Amino acid sequence: MKTRITDLFNIELPIIQGGLAYLADARLAAAVSNAGGLGQITATSLKDEQSLKHEIELFRQLSNKPFGVNFAISRFKENYMPLLEMAISLDVKIISITGGDPSPVFDRIRGLGIKTMVLVADVRQAIKAESLGADAIIAVGQEGGGHLGRTDVSTLVLIPRVVDSVSIPVIASGGIGDGRGLLAALALGAEGIEMGTRFIATQECHLASPQYQSDLVKATETDTTVIKKTLKTPGRVLMSDYVNRILELENQGVGYDGLKELVSGSANQHYINTGDATQGYGWAGQVTGLIHDVPTVKELFDRILQQIEEFKYKNIV
Rounded to whole angstroms, how far apart are CA atoms 93 and 76? Predict the structure, then answer.
């Protein structure tokens, strides 16, 4: 499957693993890259730059394939520049930027030959990212898990809108979890896909508790909801009593101070690590309705390719 994305990142399949806060470590990234996609290590949920160095070095022990480092930028994040400097010093070739203004990153890496992806949720952001020098756009629709855009535009509509608005390749994200989703994304004009939630429910995502993975398998497409709309940083999560409490407080208009403990990264990490949905929450997209088991990454990729071959056999593509 040759697209501008496979050429840009020198990968076999146009499948990108999402940044996945607190989950995207070297072992998951290596499994994705070794299977033919592009794995990523998340930087900004690591405790310091030495932790990032460890993950990058571990990846290189596990794989000789391309990989990326994800920087989730937010006004609530601490300074990420030391992490970026570490990635540069270790000759990281691919960086993705999500959740904030990517301008400082582009200012720092300009001229270094680092390939970049920027996550966007609307056409305006895509055009801005291209103007800053992004090599590719990741466009996420409202079906996606984790942080989303402030509008309710679906992946089905967003992807062709972004494709028509920029000249650089577009990667589709949100609601994609199998070969059918990849083919649909290509039909919409994208040249690759990013999957997040689907990779959480894989055997190599060892930082996700078995309960978290089980909850994803059990959930249907109607078992997620969006929190933090009142903070203007909406994100899609698995529904639970804990999440309902967040929504109730949002309806009461308590603001950030009234929500910060409940929606903190610590609360997210608690659920990720323990599966205790009474004291934390987990990001998840509507693709949960398509998740029925916890395969290895290689098994997941084999299924995706098999589905594509089945569609070819039926003369659909």
Answer: 27
Residue 275 is assigned to a structural domain of this protein: no
268 lies in a domain? no
Domain residues for 49?
A: 4-202
Q: For residue 283, what is the DSSP state? A: B
Q: Return the CATH number at 146.
A: 3.20.20.70
Write out the two tokens for 292.
Answer: 């029925």
Rg (CA), the chain: 18
Q: In total, how many domains does the chain have?
A: 1
Q: What does the CA dihedral 130, 132, 134, 138 come to, rounded to 10 degrees? A: -60
Under 8 Å CB-to-CB from 103, ≥6 apart: which residues? 132
Rounded-to-integer distance, Cα 118 and Cα 133, Å: 10
In the chain, which ranges are continuous DSSP H helix?
4-9, 26-34, 49-62, 81-89, 103-109, 123-132, 155-163, 179-187, 197-200, 210-218, 241-251, 255-259, 265-274, 297-313
Reported as a single tens digit per residue, the pLDDT across 170-185 is: 999 999 999 999 999 9
In angstroms, the Cα distances linking 87 to 29, 91, 116 are: 15, 6, 13
If one compares 47 and 164, the residue with the highest pLDDT of the two is: 164
CB-CB contact of 189 with 164 (8 Å): yes
Tokens at 71, concatenated: 């920087």
Measure the CA–CA gap between 207 and 124, rounded to whole angstroms. Answer: 35
For residue range 86-108, list pLDDT tens digits in order: 999 999 999 999 988 899 999 99
Ordered strands of the 146-147 beta sheet:
146-147, 235-238, 224-227
Q: How far apart are CA 33 and CA 259, in angstroms?
A: 37
The type of residue at 171 is I
Give the phi and the psi of residue 295 in degrees, each rounded to 5.
-80, 175
User: Residue 151: pLDDT above 80?
Assistant: yes
Q: Cα 23 from chain centroid?
A: 11
